[in-house]
C-alpha cells in the first residue's frame, strides 16, 4: 500500500482516515484545502517534503499490517452521514463553544495583564462562535432537510454559501493557532489555562474532521 500523490487530500482522508493526523502534524489543511493534490499541498508546506511522504506511507503500512477496518464514511447514505455529522460534530460545537467563552473570561481576569494575547483569543473564539452557530442552523434547518427531501438543485445553491462559511471558520482557526503559538502553554499556566488550551486543540481537530466530512464527502455528492 503506497500513497498516490495525485489523489486529492480530501479523498485520501476519506479513504484512509488515519492520514488526517499526519496532515495536522505538518500543518496541512485537509478540510477547506481538501481539493488540492497531495503532492502540491506537500510542496506548499513549510515542512520537509520527504518527511511528510514518509510519515504518510508509514501510516498506510501500519494500517495494512494491523488489518484494522476504518469507518468508510463515503459508503454511508445521505441520511446516515447527516445523522453522523449532527450527532458527533454539531453536538460537540454546541457544548464546546460556550465552555470556551466561559473559560477564557476567567483567564482574562486572572492572567490578562501578563498575557495580553488572551484578549485576542477571546475575541477570535467569540467570532468563531457567532459564525458557527448561524452556520449550524442553516445546515440543520435548511440544507439537511433539502437533501433528505431530494431537492438537490436547491441544496446545491446553499452549499456554495456554506463552503464559504467553512473557509471563514478555517481562517479563524488558523489565526487562533498563530496567536496561541500552536496552543503552547506559558510557564505560569493554571489548571483552567491547561483545560482551555486542550479544548481549543480539540475544537481544531473536530472542525477539521467536520468540514472534511461535509466538503469532501457530503457536499461532493451534489456539486
TrEMBL record:
Gene3D superfamilies assigned to the protein according to its UniProt record, in alphabetical order: nmb1532 protein domain like
Entry-linked InterPro entries: Hemerythrin-like, RIC_family
Coiled-coil regions listed in the entry: none
Hemerythrin-like domain boundaries: 82-221
Pfam family of the protein (one): ScdA_N
Keywords associated with the record: Cytoplasm, Iron, Metal-binding
Subcellular location: Cytoplasm
PANTHER family linked: IRON-SULFUR CLUSTER REPAIR PROTEIN YTFE
Protein name: Iron-sulfur cluster repair di-iron protein
Gene label: ric
Amino acid at each position: 500500500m503506497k500513497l498516490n500523490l495525485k489523489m486529492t487530500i480530501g479523498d485520501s482522508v476519506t479513504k484512509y482516515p488515519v492520514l488526517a493526523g499526519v496532515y495536522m502534524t505538518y500543518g496541512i489543511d485537509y478540510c477547506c484545502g481538501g481539493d488540492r493534490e497531495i503532492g502540491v499541498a506537500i510542496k506548499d508546506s513549510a515542512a520537509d517534503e520527504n518527511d511528510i511522504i514518509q510519515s504518510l506511507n508509514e501510516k498506510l503500512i501500519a494500517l495494512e499490517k494491523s488489518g484494522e477496518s476504518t469507518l468508510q464514511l463515503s459508503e454511508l447514505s445521505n441520511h446516515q452521514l447527516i445523522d453522523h455529522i449532527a450527532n458527533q460534530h454539531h453536538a460537540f460545537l454546541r457544548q464546546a463553544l460556550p465552555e470556551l467563552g466561559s473559560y477564557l473570561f476567567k483567564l482574562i481576569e486572572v492572567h490578562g495583564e501578563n498575557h495580553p494575547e488572551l484578549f485576542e483569543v477571546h475575541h477570535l473564539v467569540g467570532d468563531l462562535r457567532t459564525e458557527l452557530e448561524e452556520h449550524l442552523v442553516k445546515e440543520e434547518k435548511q440544507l439537511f432537510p433539502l437533501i433528505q427531501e431530494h431537492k438537490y438543485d436547491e441544496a446545491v445553491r446553499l452549499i456554495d454559501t456554506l463552503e464559504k462559511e467553512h473557509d471563514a471558520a478555517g481562517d479563524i482557526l488558523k489565526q487562533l493557532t498563530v496567536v496561541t503559538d500552536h496552543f503552547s502553554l506559558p510557564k505560569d499556566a493554571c489548571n483552567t489555562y491547561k483545560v482551555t488550551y486542550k479544548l481549543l486543540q480539540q475544537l481544531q481537530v473536530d472542525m477539521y474532521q467536520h468540514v472534511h466530512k461535509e466538503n469532501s464527502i457530503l457536499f461532493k455528492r451534489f456539486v
